[in-house]
């Protein structure tokens, strides 16, 4: 084999190697683009959840909460709880109407809907109270995002886990006193600044 043939063979090998790596780079770039598109699509979807938990400010009440944490509107929202909530819950509500309030045309971003179910001692299962159930419920939520795709989430909750949880609320006398003290200091500084400006 003469020198020109060897050079041609080497050039062909280099070309094939370059073509191979170019195709791999293109494939990798396409995969990265698909991943980024998927992440953008997921980030633009609503995220609707439901839970039965103590009230944020009044831990003495148990609430059914439905909220859209996502950045876009959720439509065709459906909430199912299995087994159904006991009829003695939400005594102050018409239970038939309460039970039917599980479908919603839409939930805008940040909207939270709450229903007062009753006092923890009446709702939380107790091993000493027969027929009170074990506090386990399966929650299923379905909704549509801006692109019309239907999302379904299913998960289980266990209310008996709340039995030994401390009942605490955000505000305490100490934090309230600190807030008043901080507000007083801020107001005093503002008054002093105004007095200085008026005296100049």
Automatic annotation (TrEMBL):
<protein>
    <recommendedName>
        <fullName>Polyketide cyclase / dehydrase and lipid transport</fullName>
    </recommendedName>
</protein>
């Amino acid at each position: 084999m003469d020198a020109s043939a060897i050079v041609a063979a080497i050039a062909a090998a280099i070309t094939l190697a370059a073509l191979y790596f170019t195709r791999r780079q293109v494939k990798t770039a396409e995969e990265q683009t698909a991943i980024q598109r998927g992440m953008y699509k997921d980030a633009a979807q609503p995220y609707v959840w439901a839970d039965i938990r103590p009230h944020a400010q009044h831990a003495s009440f148990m609430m059914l909460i439905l909220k859209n944490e996502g950045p876009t509107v959720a439509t065709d929202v459906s909430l199912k709880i299995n087994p159904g909530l006991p009829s003695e819950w939400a005594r102050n509500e018409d239970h038939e109407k309460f039970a039917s309030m599980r479908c919603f045309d839409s939930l805008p971003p940040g909207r939270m809907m709450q229903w007062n179910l009753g006092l923890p001692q009446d709702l939380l299962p107790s091993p000493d109270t027969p027929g009170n159930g074990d506090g386990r419920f399966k929650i299923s939520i379905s909704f549509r995002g801006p692109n019309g795709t239907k999302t379904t989430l299913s998960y289980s909750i266990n209310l008996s886990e709340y039995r030994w949880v401390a009942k605490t609320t955000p505000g305490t006398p100490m934090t309230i006193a600190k807030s008043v003290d901080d507000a007083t200091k801020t107001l005093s500084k503002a008054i002093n600044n105004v007095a200085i400006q008026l005296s100049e």
